Amino acid sequence: MSFSLTDDEWERVRLMPPEALADLAADLDLILPEHIEARTLIEDCIPGILKRCLADGLPLSRYDRDDLEALTPQERSDAAVILGVQGKPTVDALITAGERVYKRYVDSPIAMVVPSLLTAILRASRQS
User: Fold this and answer.
1) What residue segments make up the domains of the chain, in order of their start?
2) What is d(CA 126, CA 81) in angstroms, rounded to the nearest whole number?
3) Tell me, what's the pLDDT at 67?
4) Confidence (pLDDT) at 121
5) Which residue among 2, 37, 61, 71 has its CA within the 20 to 30 Å range from the CA of 85?
6) Average pLDDT in the chain
């Protein structure tokens, strides 16, 4: 699956340190190119992040409240599906479900980027 970040999504992660980007790619078993083009590498990571999130859920915490409140109703519904939240996908319900997932991801670079890439991950879930 080919995926492209919107300019707004890219803005949220463009200052990601190269070491963090390399850790994320390694965690997803991606082979790093000799020359790392950050935007392309992050776009290449999205399908792997989505695959993990579909298997495990979205690692979220109470600190992600603002990101969740900024989601559209469709995006909240998409997050609820990934997290297995039944009923109305309230921000509190998403945080509660996401915190259970986050406990398993506490040292993972995926947990660090999910809030910043949340809209991209949710958009990718609709495209898959």
Assistant:
1) 7-127
2) 11
3) 95
4) 97
5) 2
6) 93
